[in-house]
TrEMBL record:
InterPro entries: FAD-linked_oxidoreductase-like (IPR029041), Proline_DH_dom (IPR002872), Proline_oxidase (IPR015659). GO terms for molecular function: FAD binding; proline dehydrogenase activity. It comes from Galdieria yellowstonensis. This is Proline dehydrogenase. One of its GO terms (cellular component) is mitochondrion. It catalyses: L-proline + a quinone = (S)-1-pyrroline-5-carboxylate + a quinol + H(+).
Length: 480
């Protein structure tokens, strides 16, 4: 037995070393050793000792697949087209493979019950969970009346699931969060229209700073659309009725979240919807956040050239209405989509041209908002797997003498990504929240496509994950 295990280690090591070698831009090793000064890395056993061997193997295969040329770029599109128009037999065959690999790895299941079962190992580490029904819609869809009726049922279904998620989080009482995607709850066509209206209004103003002063389309964030002239001139009565209902549906969820003391995070999505999403999110914050507590969070994507403008806008609104800002900071998940969208329309890309600019923007806003946490003005979730950003944040926190377990500060990572970092942060006493996506396979295809793309070009964090999986597997084989 010992000889066999030695042989396995000897022959698999070079292959895994090749697979886990960081691919694109990387300062991973440097940042890892620096971050060691701030957080103690966990051992593979501490991070993954609880996982079944089957799950470790699946993790390795899925991440290797993500790094196989072509799979990340075309995998999602292939899956979508099979689901749209492929023969049933091929669809069942492909779904079978996807379920056993990337779906099983990046999603915690198809239902909430499966999610709860598959996240026990995270709970044992003291990680907070955030179950996310990962259905979403892409902009550019014009709906017929028939489609609108179907959409209505889909939105109600998404809202019911969210209510169930909030209730469970409240019953468990483990400080979990909830999260929503506005595109799963409102008609995209209306959001696009609302977005265009907000931007047109800002551009009309002679005041260059207009866009950070607030929303002159609805200065009180009243959502009283039928009474606001500008809304009446841009939307038909029927569209306004639907928009009102959609916003009311979102409001019902935020009200329940605030009442249950389960903070709800509103995700950032495509750029052409983001001003509309932010307007709705800030209106909800005005209603449910208090000067002490944030129950509703908005999200800023730092890969956007205007991310600092967005930060100014949301902090000003929070100050104007006197509530504690709830903010989740991400780099942004739609990079490839945004670039393609801009180049097809021959417009300037809203996304920074280089990753260094995105890093700079992320770290600058993060430092400023950590300072605001220490002043009692913001509740912050730093959603990132980037070790350099995590290191910077910890440095800031220590300079400000903030407690690691400050209740208004969390790190956030995605399910099955940077799990070793998640465990290390918990070990160092930080609060960490893990995004746990779930939903039927056909609904989560856009989410899976993004994870494949991200794990291809993520800053070496995939390599760290793979080497941890491998080391834990080898530990089990050699029975250390
Ligand atoms: C808890 C949580 C919640 C999230 N919520 C959202 C959300 O609401 N909306 C959303 O969009 N995303 C969301 N994400 C996804 C998030 O945007 C990605 O996970 C993130 O971009 C990965 O980056 P990173 O910070 O881990 O760092 P890294 O892996 O270091 O950076 C990779 C990121 O840098 C950016 N980038 C890469 N190449 C370039 C380039 N050439 N030029 C400019 N920028 C580049 C991209 O944003 C890319 O994803 C969430 C993630 C987590 C963990």
């Amino acid at each position: 037995m010992r000889t066999w295990s030695k042989l396995i280690v000897t022959y698999t090591k070079p292959l895994v070393a090749k697979l886990t070698k960081p691919r694109t831009y990387t300062h991973t090793e440097a940042s890892q050793s620096v971050s060691k000064a701030y957080i103690t890395p966990v051992t593979p056993k501490e991070a993954f000792g609880d996982l079944a061997t089957r799950d470790l193997l699946r993790g390795l295969v899925s991440l290797a697949l993500a790094r196989t040329p072509g799979v990340a770029t075309y995998g999602g599109k292939f899956l979508e087209s099979i689901h749209r128009s492929g023969p049933r037999i091929l669809k069942d065959f492909v779904d079978g493979i996807v379920r056993r690999t990337v779906f099983g790895h990046f999603c915690a299941g198809e239902t909430l019950d499966e999610c709860e079962r598959n996240t026990q190992h995270l709970r044992r580490l003291g990680v907070k969970c955030l179950f996310d029904y990962a259905a979403e819609r892409e902009p550019g869809t014009v709906l017929s009346e028939e489609d609108l009726r179907k959409e209505e049922a889909a939105k109600e279904y998404a809202a019911e699931l969210e209510i169930e998620t909030i209730r469970r989080a409240c019953q468990l009482g483990k400080g979990d969060f909830a999260c929503i995607k506005i595109t799963a709850l409102a008609v995209i066509e209306h959001l696009e229209k609302l977005n265009a209206m907000i931007i047109k209004d800002w551009k009309k103003s002679a005041d260059k700073e207009a866009s950070i002063r607030g929303y002159s389309v609805d200065p009180e964030l009243s959502f009283d659309f039928e009474k606001l002239e500008i809304f009446k001139s841009h939307f038909s009565d029927e569209e306004l009725r639907i928009l009102r209902n959609d916003v009311f549906r979102i409001q019902r969820l935020c009200a329940l979240a605030a009442e249950s003391r389960v903070p709800i995070l509103i995700d950032a999505e495509h750029y052409c919807l983001q001003d509309a999403i932010e307007y709705i999110a800030m209106g909800m914050q005005k209603r449910y956040n208090t000067p002490q507590e944030s129950y509703v969070f908005t999200t800023i994507q730092c890969y956007l050239k205007d991310s600092e403008r967005r930060e100014k806008l949301v902090t000003r609104i929070a100050e104007q209405f006197g509530f504690r800002l709830g903010l989740k900071l991400v780099r942004g998940a739609y990079l490839h989509y945004e670039r393609e969208y801009a180049s097809q329309r021959n417009i300037e890309s809203p996304v920074w041209n280089t990753i260094e600019e995105t890093h700079r923007s992320y770290n600058t806003i993060a430092s400023r908002e950590i300072a605001r946490v220490s002043q009692g003005k913001t509740s912050l979730i730093l959603a990132t797997h980037n070790l350099e950003s995590i290191r910077n944040a910890i440095k800031n926190i220590e300079q400000l003498n903030m407690r690691h377990d400050n209740e208004h500060f969390h790190f956030g990572q995605l399910y099955s990504m940077a799990d070793a970092t998640t465990a290390s942060l918990r070990k160092a006493g930080f609060q960490v929240v893990k995004y746990i996506p779930f939903g039927p396979l056909e609904e989560v295809i856009p989410y899976l496509s993004r994870r494949l793309l991200e794990n291809q070009d993520i800053l070496g964090s995939t390599s760290v994950d793979m080497s941890y999986f491998y080391k834990e597997l080898m530990r089990r084989i050699t029975r250390k």
